[in-house]
Design brief:
Structural class: mainly alpha
Helix content: over 70%
Largest sheet: 2 strands, antiparallel
Oligomer: single chain
Strand content: under 5%
C-alpha cells in the first residue's frame, strides 16, 4: 500500500524518467557477460528439452502410424491383401525392404525429423535455429493447413502458369536488350546510375525482380528525351504491354487459381461437415427421416448405429482365431478382406423398418 501511495505522488515526468532508468538498467544487465552466459545455459536446457520432445513425438507417431502406412503401401504396390503379401515368398523380401521405406517417408515424420535437426542446430550452432519451430503452428491449425493446400492442391497449374510468365518476361528482356539496352538503368543519386541490362541474363533477372516487385518494368528505365518520338513510342508500348500481360493477366490467373482452390476446399469441408452432422455414417439415412419416422437422429447414431460399435466389430473379427469364427463372422470377415461394405445396413434400420420406413430387400444388412 505504501508503494502504491508513493507511485500516486509521482508526476508524469518523474514516472517517465523512472521507467527510462529502469529500461536502461535492464538493457545494461541483458548485455552483461553474466546474463549472456546464463542465456546460453538456458538455451541449452530448453534446446535439450525440445530435442527430447521431438524424439518422443517422432517415436509415438512412428509406432502408431508407421505400420499402417507400411501396410497400405505394400497393398497398393502388390494389389494383394496384406496377409498374402507377407505369406508369399516373392513379396517377402520386398515387404522387408520397402515396409520401413513406406513408414519413414510419411511427410509428418519428415517434418518431425526436421524439427529435431533444427533443435540440434539451435544447441550446437546458433539459437536462431529455434525459430524454425514456429512453423509447427501449421501442424496445429486446420485453417493454415487449408491455406497451404490451396497453394499446393493445384501446384502443377500454378507452376506451369509461373513458368509461362517467366518465358514472357524473358521475351520482354530479349526485346529490351536488342532494341534499347542503354535505357535500362537504376537511379543511384548522387552517384552515377547503375546499368541494369549489361547482358541478356542480367536484363532478364532485373526484369523479373524489378518488374514483378514494383508492378512496372518502367521503374528502372530512363524517361524519354523531349523530342524523341521513337523512344517515347517504344517505352509506351513496352511498359503498357508488360503491365497488361504479366501484371494484370498472368499474376491474376495465379491468384485466381489459388482463390478458387481455397473456395473449393472450404465448400468441400462444409459439405463434409453437413453430411457428418445430418446423415448416419453407417446406414446413410438423413436426420429428417430418422427424426420423423424413427427414434430420432441423435438416439439412432448413439445406440442403433454407433460408429465405434462397428469399429469394435471389425477389430474383433480381425483379431479372433479364424478356427473359432461362426458362419456370419466368416462371411463378414471375408467381405472386409475384399473391401466390400455390403454388410452395412444401407438406407435401412430395424426401428425405422418397424415403423413402416426403410429400404427394400436389397438395401444391405440389417442394423
Amino acid at each position: 500500500s505504501e508503494l502504491y501511495a508513493w507511485a500516486l505522488t509521482l508526476s508524469p515526468v518523474e514516472a517517465l524518467e523512472l521507467v527510462e532508468r529502469a529500461g536502461l538498467q535492464l538493457i545494461e544487465r541483458l548485455g552483461s557477460p553474466e546474463w549472456i552466459e546464463a542465456e546460453g545455459q538456458i538455451n541449452h536446457v530448453l534446446g535439450g528439452l525440445q530435442c527430447l520432445s521431438c524424439v518422443v513425438v517422432f517415436s509415438i507417431y512412428a509406432v502408431q502410424n508407421g505400420p499402417i502406412r507400411a501396410r497400405r503401401g505394400l497393398m497398393d504396390a502388390s494389389g494383394l491383401p496384406y496377409e498374402e503379401v507377407v505369406a508369399r515368398p516373392e513379396w517377402r523380401l520386398f515387404s522387408l525392404v520397402m515396409g520401413p521405406v513406406y513408414a519413414l517417408t510419411d511427410p509428418k515424420l519428415v517434418l518431425l525429423a526436421a524439427m529435431f535437426g533444427a533443435a540440434y542446430l539451435g544447441i550446437n550452432h546458433s539459437p536462431l535455429w529455434f525459430s524454425v519451430h514456429l512453423l509447427d503452428i501449421v501442424n496445429k491449425s486446420a485453417d493454415l493447413q487449408n491455406v497451404l493446400r490451396a497453394v499446393t492442391e493445384n501446384g502443377r497449374s500454378i507452376a506451369m502458369t509461373a513458368l509461362f510468365g517467366a518465358i514472357i518476361i524473358y521475351l520482354f528482356a530479349v526485346v529490351g536488350f536488342a532494341v534499347e539496352r542503354d535505357i535500362f538503368v537504376l537511379g543511384n543519386f548522387p552517384d552515377e546510375d547503375l546499368p541494369m541490362c549489361t547482358n541478356l541474363f542480367n536484363c532478364f533477372l532485373n526484369a523479373l525482380n524489378e518488374g514483378l516487385r514494383s508492378g512496372d518494368i518502367g521503374s528502372f528505365m530512363d524517361p524519354p528525351v523531349p523530342g524523341d518520338h521513337r523512344g517515347f513510342a517504344f517505352r509506351f508500348v513496352y511498359q503498357l504491354s508488360f503491365w497488361a500481360i504479366v501484371i494484370t493477366v498472368l499474376l491474376n490467373v495465379i491468384f485466381g487459381i489459388i482463390i478458387d482452390t481455397f473456395a473449393e476446399l472450404r465448400a468441400s469441408h462444409q459439405a463434409t461437415k453437413a453430411n457428418m452432422e445430418n446423415n448416419c455414417f453407417i446406414c446413410g439415412l438423413d436426420r429428417f427421416t430418422l427424426d420423423s419416422k424413427g427414434p430420432g437422429f441423435e438416439e439412432h447414431v448413439a445406440e442403433d448405429h454407433n460408429l465405434w460399435t462397428y469399429i469394435f466389430l471389425m477389430c474383433y473379427l480381425r483379431s479372433k482365431d479364424p478356427t473359432m469364427l461362426n458362419g456370419w463372422e466368416q462371411y463378414v470377415l471375408r467381405l472386409m478382406r475384399d473391401e466390400d461394405a455390403s454388410f452395412f445396413p444401407s438406407q435401412n434400420a430395424l426401428r425405422l423398418a418397424g415403423s413402416g420406413g426403410g429400404g427394400g430387400e436389397d438395401s444391405g444388412g440389417g442394423g
